[in-house]
Amino acid sequence: MGILSRTSYVIRSKINAILNRAEDPTETLDYSYEQMRDELQQVKQGIADLTTQKKRLEIQKRRLEENVQKHNEQAREAVQQDREDLARKALEKKKSKMNQIEDLETQIAELQNTQDQLVDKKDELQGRIEEFKTKKETMKARYEAAEASTRVSEAMSGVGDEMADVSRAIENAESRTEEMEARSMAMDELADTGAFDEALSGDDSIDRELEAGRTDREVDAELETLRAELGKAPAEPEADADTDVEATDADAEAEVDTEDVPDEEVEAELEELQQEESDGSK
User: Fold this and answer.
1) What percent of the chain lies above the pLDDT cut of 90?
2) Of the candidates 216, 215, 205, 212, which has an alpha carbon nearest to the alpha carbon of residue 258?
3) Burial of 204 per CB tally in 10 Å (0-12, 13-18, 19+)
4) In Å, what is the CA distance from 138 to each residue of 23, 44, 75, 81, 142?
5) Per the record, where are the segments of Acidic residues compositional bias (predicted)?
6) Which of 88, 233, 264, 280 lies most in the core, judged by the most C-beta atoms within 10 Å?
């Protein structure tokens, strides 16, 4: 197969594929039905023309029959007047008209026969058209039902392009939603741990503990003032509470020293404190 033949074959194949996809069976059925109705209309028109032609011949025949009757009367009258020549002419015309009538009767009979045949064909064609119409409507209903079922099946299976786009959109929405939910949970967890409060205040844990200690001392001082104004005896400090406070302060100072001061400075301060205690004991 040459290049041109192969190219022509491919082109015809593509065109046939396009036509097959573009062809709508329901439109083809409707077109065939309209063609059959056009043919029926043409048959009816032919019958009408034949009927018209036959009627014209019948009218012509009646006129000839009237002429025959007239020529017959003319011949009788001519005989009564002893005019045989006129009677002969009248009889000759009568005979000519009768011959024409016979020809017309033959033509009328042929037209009638043709008309009867066309009427039979028209009835048969009309019956076929009615039968085709029933089948056409049935086939159209089956095709439309099959087409709708195919569309539904494609939609359910996600084969169609639109359903594929919808599936991708749903997947993207689910992914974004899960991401936002995870972010919201993380934010809630950070809020519960107080990370946002620390970031906003700018204080570290030592500052907050020192602030809590100052607040406690201010409250204790204000409480002593109220007791003095009311004449109440000052409350004796609880040993355990003082011990706990001192331990807390010591721990806080140790933590401050540990976190902020280098090891060499800590050792030097400890030696100075030990030296002061030894001098005081002397």
Assistant:
1) 24
2) 205
3) exposed
4) 18, 27, 73, 82, 6
5) 237-282
6) 88
